[in-house]
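Table S2 (continued). Query chain:
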Amino acid sequence: MQATQVATPFHRPGWVYEEKVDGYRMVASKEGPRVSLISRQGKDFTHRFPDLAKAVAALAAESAILDTEVAVFDRPSARAPTSPGASVDG
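Corresponding output:
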């Protein structure tokens, strides 16, 4: 089933929904202290998302591979992310 775009979310008994957020598909990997964030195109964006890299580095696991969707919001209370090209190329 594909999502349908609507102007505002609705609330009805028996219905559950998830708001759609577009972001950047990345693989976050950790091996010891080394962390990398790689895009679907194979580009290294670790330097573009230092807070995310720091969070991955802080994981208790010695090694990890995380399939992620990174969304960048233009302000802390924003409901929608900035356009994909606004902060990252590729």
